[in-house]
Amino acid sequence: MFEPRELFDLSQTGHAAVFDGCKFAWEALGKIASYLGSRAQPQLRNRCDGTAYIGEHVSIGEGTVLEDGVMILGPAIIGRNCQIRHNAYIRQNVIIGDDCVVGNATEIKNSILFNKADAPHFNYVGDSILGFHAHLGAGVKISNFKIFPGNITVEMDGQPFDTGLRKFGALLGDECEVGCNAVLSPGSILGRASVIYPNVVWRGILPERMIVKNKAAQEVTHRRPGGS
Question: Which domains does the chain have, with CATH numbers?
Answer without folding.
Answer: 4-212 (2.160.10.10)
